[in-house]
From TrEMBL, chains A, B:
Binds 1 heme b (iron(II)-protoporphyrin IX) group non-covalently per subunit. Involved in the recovery of exogenous heme iron. Extracts iron from heme while preserving the protoporphyrin ring intact. The lineage of its organism: Bacteria, Bacillati, Actinomycetota, Actinomycetes, Frankiales. Its EC number is 1.11.1.-. The gene is efeB. This is Deferrochelatase. The keyword Membrane does not apply. It comes from Frankia nepalensis. Belongs to the DyP-type peroxidase family.
């Protein structure tokens, strides 16, 4: 049998150079020894894995998402968790540079052994891959792993919310990994290989593919549209808003070193009843959202980025221009004690259900300093008429440790 | 309520200009009056909707797929089918130019009516969208729609194949629409709006999202990799191989005008047992496929595009370099009376199943002049050791009418 290259070994050589990457900028890298398939900037982008905070939170939102939640195996110990996070960190360092996992990759090593890497991302650029790790509340349960003293005080399971219809099998989890990339195959490849590495210590509980980001974290990204056809995330916190990030996103740690510079991650799978929505009058759609469908301007007028004027009155009707129960009003910081979240959701479409309805909606992801931000705003949305057209069908809640520096592994302080 | 733009009306004005597009080249178009979000060539690409053959077959393979199969409603008549194809053709002309469906789009028309277009593709470029229509064999059943005399002689339901485990609910269908685009939201938007237009005449039976093309139709596209990590589609028929297309893809019509220049479309949802595959030795993976995993060269040596030498003997083992049951040998034209297919499949990933295994694989799409091409090759693959790692879980079979010209609608001759 002829093997014309040992790409994994070539990569081993490239690794030393790759390790010099870092800092705040965007560097270029190649996945393997082949010529790059494209010089496209989105394909060749890389983001540093190390930093004060984990990547994939304020990073410019990539085009595609693969999100996985894992459960530890029944008999896993604290040491299993520690070695898993060590191994995942090592693999993530490779992946974030557009490299394969392991030292011998997909086609190196012994032909008598399974390849270390699954290989489907060979020839693809790094595609701006970021990998973000989170820990579920159950890891800190007393008597389970001996981590109860490491639990941030606010880190308790989310309460129940009005109207939610959660599927347990696709909710929760002991650990999560958010992989974002400009190519879906690169995001899926990352999760798949991290799952292989977890074998015997943790297995996937649920996973979610998303596309079409529904928010921006930088001002040069146009505001995308969700599957209701409206611009979504206009008022999202941006990466350059240091004061807002400090106030709303980055945790001081609640006394836990591993969480200082971390944040809380909430996911909600929000099914949209799009066939019903699509039969709704345009003016009703706009009244429910509180924004114009075309430009995305608040119904009080002007442009997408104009602050809503909640007191403005429609001359035509004599009522408030932005209805009292409009989504934009109910969710606005002015009516939620100033609270904001950093959002990073994606659209999803998964064929159709047994009733012939499209299985589609928003995979909502938000980062916040305190779970109260999500809880309070979600409670305020209980009277949102949008609820006629959406269902929260799955939920995830994780604490995202601070970023790693100088060769640390993720959540290293957890085991100190 | 303020509405700052009537983008649909702007589009009405743009439509006349858009109609001048056509011919064999790639033109530029904008979805709405906004500045384009990107000058990216993939985003701004358009392909002509009219032509001798339908688009989306030899068109350079786009990055994303949304494929839908529809059933006619129980009491639908031949006239319902005809008007549906008329309406779909009209909408597809708009969509292929990167425009919204209808005359008033997503934000024009009366605010008291539901918008004509669902709106989620506003602001996105045309993204090379192609829409390809097909007809299922059940449309031609005697006594159903009066179309029995229009049935091509070879157009009968596919036989059963060894080892397949087909799910009826996600197989078959009276009609199909293949939407391919460089942005998944554009492909999903097309199917969603065609489904709305079909309301009362047909509804979606099943739909499939795909990403990461697994074949190329032009020589400048690098061969992509499937989820087994191998290059896939190396030997695919290319758009510039006129003799091969005439010999293997384009039908002479079998006496039916509507089918002259058409082709048969087969879809197979092929679940991969990737966890098992990933634990297989590299040399076994390569022996099963018959190709090197790194470069994609046949195991008889040289480069990806070297013809396999099926007689070559391995000096190490004394056996054939390409094993007698290797996939590349079993599927090769030399062992299948010269038969070839034009392939256009995509990878899919859909979270994981109840056993914790990844639900992922290949959504196989192939176009061929005769169903025998698929049937004979699939039968030859019954003894493929790859079957240990794959399951055919869904199947579709459709006759794709010739392309439309001069304002015709799809399958117009069917009703002559």
């Amino acid at each position: 049998m002829t093997r014309v290259s040992r790409r994994g070994l070539l990569l081993g050589g490239a690794a030393a150079g790759g390790a010099a990457l870092g800092g705040g900028g965007v560097a270029l890298a190649l996945r393997d020894g082949d010529a790059p398939a494209s010089a496209d900037a989105d394909e060749q982008a890389t983001y540093p894995f190390e930093g004060e905070h984990q990547a994939g939170i304020t990073t410019p939102v990539q085009r595609h998402l693969y999100f996985a939640a894992y459960d530890l195996t029944a008999n896993a110990t604290r040491d299993d968790l520690r070695t898993l996070l060590e191994d995942w960190t090592e693999a993530a360092r490779h992946l974030a540079q557009g490299r394969e996992v392991g030292e011998t990759g997909a086609v190196g090593g012994s032909p008598l052994a399974p390849p270390e890497d699954t290989g489907e991302a060979l020839g693809l650029g790094p595609n701006g891959l970021t990998i973000t790790f989170g820990l579920g509340p159950a890891l800190f349960e007393p008597g389970r792993l001996g981590l109860e003293k490491k639990r941030p005080a606010l880190f308790e399971p989310l309460p129940s919310f009005a109207l939610e219809l959660l599927d347990e099998a696709t909710s929760g989890g002991d650990l999560c990994v958010q992989a974002c990339a400009n190519d879906p195959q690169v995001a899926v490849h990352a999760i798949r290989n991290l799952s292989r590495i977890a074998f015997g210590r943790a297995q996937i509980r649920w996973a979610q593919l998303g596309y079409g980001r529904t928010s921006s974290t930088t001002r040069d990204q146009a505001t995308p549209r969700n599957l209701m056809g409206f611009k979504d995330g206009t008022r999202n916190i941006k990466a350059d808003e240091a004061d807002e990030l400090a106030a709303h996103v980055w945790s001081g740690g609640e006394g836990q070193d591993w969480f200082a510079g971390g944040t809380y991650l909430v996911t909600r799978k929000i099914q949209m009843l799009i066939e019903s929505w699509d039969r709704t009058r345009l003016d009703e759609q706009e009244a429910i959202i509180g924004r114009d469908k075309g430009k995305g301007a608040p119904l009080s007028g002007d442009t997408e980025f104009t602050e809503p004027d909640f007191e403005a009155v429609s001359t035509a009707t004599g009522d408030k221009a932005i209805p009292m129960d409009a989504h934009v009003r109910l969710a606005h910081p002015d009516f939620n004690t100033g609270q904001r979240m950093l959002r990073r959701g994606y659209n999803y479409v998964e064929g159709n259900n047994a009733l012939g309805q499209t299985s589609a909606g928003l995979f909502f992801i938000a980062f916040q300093k305190s779970p109260r931000q999500f809880i309070d705003i979600q409670n305020a949305l209980a009277r949102d008429p949008l609820n006629e057209y959406i269902r929260h069908v799955a939920s995830g809640f994780f604490a995202v440790p601070r970023g790693v520096r100088g060769g640390e592994h993720v959540a290293q302080d957890l085991f100190a």
